[in-house]
Design a protein that fits this description.
With 97 residues, the chain is α+β, with helices and mostly antiparallel strands. It contains 1 helix and 2 strands, in the order βαβ. It has a two-stranded parallel sheet with strand order 1-2.
Length: 97
Amino acid sequence: MQVKKVIHTSSVAAIQTYDKPADYVFSEKDWNDWSSETNKDYYGIAKVEAEKIMKEASEAHGFELVCINPGVVFGNTYERIFHSACVFRSARKDRMW
């Protein structure tokens, strides 16, 4: 059986930039070019690279690629410490909620 479609859950961090007006609608034409090792936004770098790798794979292997870019994902985390991708923080420094 051949894979026909892959849905890749990414992040708004893969497409957002900070030089657009507030009402700008991001699309598949946009890439986050702000994230860099200089500003230490490794999460943004990883999300951009992951989407580019998936795009290359879809072209090489002939499957349809759908990327979704949510702004927030609610739920448990694998990590017990905070990092730059954590939006919500509790009063306790070692817990997400």
